[in-house]
Specification:
Blueprint: H1 3-9, E1 19-21, H2 25-30, E2 33-38, H3 49-63, E3 68-73, H4 78-90, E4 93-99, H5 108-115, E5 119-123, H6 125-129, H7 134-144, E6 148-149, H8 157-163, E7 176-181, H9 185-193, E8 199-204, H10 210-221, E9 229-233, H11 246-259, H12 268-280, E10 289-294, H13 300-308
Parallel strand pairs: 2-10, 3-4, 3-6, 4-5, 7-8, 7-10, 8-9
Antiparallel strand pairs: 1-2
Helix pairs in contact: 3-4, 3-8, 4-5, 8-9, 11-12
Bound molecules: pyridoxal-5'-phosphate.
Pyridoxal-5'-phosphate binds near residues 153, 264 and 297.
Length: about 325
């Protein structure tokens, strides 16, 4: 398959990407404009930042004449879900190595991946830790045949190349750009594409300060120098990765009622929560034009409800 084929097949559903301007008395009072870039709406299944992170990886897999991709993730992973859908769309087979030995037959993420044709294998946590070792990958090659490897979370040079395309020139009038951080691949791509008058705030979904070193290493490894300024915000993790608080859940409901925008509790909810809190604390000077990048992740809301019994606003796709 040719390079162009992927470009045509894994295509943005809507161009330009929808961008919502929010209206609220607090925004008027602080003299701040707030917009949300709806990456959750770029594609029905390959949603959010994963669309951009997968795009050039799949193109590379096809250019290298691979028939299949192999990747890793947790049982509710947005990356697994999106990879299953994207691989199917461009005609590649897919294997998903899932953390946790027994695959729950009620897990909506895994059931979707399976229905998209992804072959799933559950591995123990110990084995999962060794998943990037040559010995494990060789074992997978023997089992499934040759594959193009997409790392856990999907972050590599091709992913960052894709993430550079998230902000288009139409977003150049914003002064602040906010994005959630997992591995930091999306942050790195956006950091590479902002203008000198822009500030990028990465809201970490993980507990701790370790992400600072991770991001520094990633930017160095990818030779990314930003034209704008960057800031890491580490105090809104709500207990850690995939952890949540009642305050976060009520914020997600409040945000949906006020603005009609669904959020997920792992990434975008924490980012929007941080944004609103920073707004209250006058972090953004009057005249600021903030752009929140909604990175998607809404498929995970079904799994969240299944695990916790807590219903979240989720649009029917
Ligand atoms: C994967 C994901 C992220 C994290 O992206 P990184 O590039 O790993 O930092 C953020 N938001 C959502 C919704 C995601 O699914």
């Amino acid at each position: 398959m040719s390079r162009n084929f992927v470009k045509i097949v894994l295509m943005l559903l809507r161009q330009p990407i929808p961008c919502d301007l929010l209206s609220h008395p607090l925004l008027d009072q602080k003299q701040v404009a707030l917009q949300v870039l709806r990456l959750d709406q770029v594609h029905p299944e390959v949603s959010g930042n994963k669309f951009f992170k997968l795009r050039y990886n799949l193109q590379e897999a096809l250019d290298q004449n691979h028939q299949q991709v192999l990747t890793f993730g947790g049982a509710y992973s947005n990356h697994i879900y999106a990879t299953a859908a994207a691989a199917k769309e461009v005609g590649l087979a897919a294997v998903g190595i899932i953390r946790g030995e027994s695959l729950d037959s009620k897990n909506p993420t895994l059931n979707f991946a399976k229905s998209a044709g992804m072959r799933l294998i559950g591995v123990s946590r110990t084995q999962y830790r060794e998943k990037s070792q040559p010995a494990f990958l060789e074992l997978m090659r023997q089992k499934f045949g040759n594959f193009y490897l997409i790392p856990e979370g999907g972050t590599n040079t091709f992913a960052i190349q894709g993430a550079r395309e998230i902000l288009s020139s139409s977003q150049s009038d914003s002064s602040h750009v906010l994005v959630p951080i997992g591995t930091g691949g999306t942050f790195a791509g956006i950091a590479a594409s902002i203008f000198s008058h822009q500030k990028l705030l990465g809201i970490s979904a993980l507990k701790g300060e370790g992400i600072r070193d991770e991001i520094t290493k990633l930017l160095r490894a990818e030779s990314i120098q930003t034209n704008g300024s960057i800031e890491l915000v580490t105090q809104y993790h709500q207990g850690g990765y995939a952890k949540w608080t009642a305050e976060l859940i009520s914020f997600i409901h409040w945000f949906w009622e006020k603005f009609d925008i669904p959020l997920d509790p792992i990434y975008t909810g924490k980012m929007a929560f941080a944004c609103w809190d920073l707004l209250k604390k006058n972090h953004f000077p009057p005249g600021s034009r903030i752009l929140m990048v909604h990175t998607g992740g809404l498929q995970g809301n079904r799994g969240f409800t299944q695990r916790t019994g807590i219903v979240l606003p989720t649009p029917v796709l």
